[in-house]
Design goal:
The protein is an alpha+beta fold. The chain has helices spanning 57-68, 92-107, 114-125, 129-136, 172-176, 185-203, 207-214, 221-224, 230-240, 264-274, 297-301; strands spanning 2-11, 20-34, 39-42, 76-82, 139-144, 149-154, 160-165, 245-248, 255-259, 279-283, 291-294. It contains eleven helices and eleven strands. The longest helix is centred in the middle third of the chain and has 19 residues, at 185-203. The structure holds adenosine-5'-triphosphate and L-homoserine. Pathway: Amino-acid biosynthesis; L-threonine biosynthesis; L-threonine from L-aspartate: step 4/5. Its EC number is 2.7.1.39.
Length: 306
């Protein structure tokens, strides 16, 4: 039996639209083994909505990835569980894509590098931020086109992440439909400079400046604001309670706050009391990215669902 473990991700960090991502410590897990036919067994509630045969998205991605290398995938029985809420801006679709790529890599013995996994994930998802973070872990910066994908990753320490997860879904497709087709030259330059500053501040370990620059997005948040009215309120409460900065997580509706360790509890408490219907929690940064392992007999004995 094998285990595939893929972290969640937050995209953009404000101005890094479709380019910056960060892996977070919520996980999609697949416990699987070879079988006579495809079978997908959901272990968590949200996974139960998806097909239980080979039409399952994860299996489809795995088959397409194997086919790209001229291989056919042997059928498997997969137990799927996920802590990543669907359509909330925490990269659930990218985690499913990366799980499918890892499944193909393991079962068809493709020996893929992270760069190859990141390339496939970006082609399936259309942008490199979520999938890249799920593959590499840590902070990723990517540039993806149909022709080529480049992703650089580095580990992140020294900052706490608090997320405010609303109790409603917002599909990326819907959240992208409100974006403009073109952007004025001056706006684009400012947006691009803000993204560069976010990165420069991160590599200088200047989290206060990171937070300030996160607020200077020109690419998506101004257009998405009507879809996420809680964003402005969370920005204000987080700032009043010592957070470095706040941004929409991916396409939303989750909001992400970067906070100093000493302020994490206070920010979490204030947001919880103001938004009792939201899940407010601290998430760890995942600096490892997706992992696969072969389980021993002793490991298997600890699995209650077998
Ligand atoms: N494990 C899965 N199996 C099949 N489909 C999935 C799975 N996980 C996510 N999806 C699909 O992806 C959709 C959510 O993707 P979407 O891109 O809208 O949001 P997200 O990935 O959660 O957030 P974001 O991209 O903003 O970080 C779900 O509604 C579902 O259709
Ligand atoms: N960069 C993407 C992430 C969500 O998939 C967006 O903001 O639309």
């Amino acid at each position: 039996m094998f285990l595939i473990r893929v972290p969640a991700s937050t995209a953009n960090l404000g101005p890094g639209f479709d380019s910056i991502g960060l892996a977070l410590g919520l996980y999609l897990e697949i416990h699987g083994s070879l079988s006579d036919s495809w079978e997908v067994v959901p272990l968590t509630e949200e996974m139960a909505a998806f097909p239980k045969d080979e039409s399952n998205y994860i299996v489809q991605i795995a088959k397409k990835t194997a086919a790209f290398y001229g291989k056919e995938l042997a059928p498997c029985r997969l137990f799927v569980s996920s802590e990543i809420p669907l359509a909330r801006g925490l990269g659930s679709s990218a985690s499913a894509i990366v799980a499918g790529i890892e499944l193909a890599n393991l079962v068809a013995e493709l020996n893929l590098t992270n760069d190859q996994k990141g390339r496939h994930a970006s082609l399936f998802e259309g942008h490199p931020d979520n999938g890249g973070a799920s593959v590499y872990g840590g902070l990723v910066v990517g540039l993806h086109t149909e022709e080529q994908t480049d992703i650089v990753s580095f580990p992140i320490k020294g900052v706490k992440v608090i997320v405010a997860i609303p109790n409603f879904e917002l599909l990326t497709e819907d959240s992208r439909s409100v974006l403009p087709k073109t952007l004025a030259y001056k706006e684009a330059i400012e947006g691009s400079a803000a993204a560069n500053m976010v990165l420069a501040a991160i590599v200088s370990d200047n989290w206060k400046l990171v937070g300030q620059m996160m607020q200077r997005d020109r690419f998506h948040q101004p257009y998405r604001a009507p879809l996420v009215p809680h964003l402005a309120q969370i920005e204000e409460i987080a700032a009043q309670n010592g957070a470095y900065g706040t941004a929409l997580s991916g396409a939303g509706p989750t909001v992400l706050c970067l906070v100093p360790e000493a302020q994490a509890e206070q920010v979490q408490e204030k947001l919880s009391s103001k938004f009792p219907d939201f899940v407010i929690k601290e998430l760890l940064i995942d600096n490892k990215g997706s992992q696969t392992m072969i389980l021993s007999e002793a490991d298997k004995e600890e699995l209650s669902f077998l």
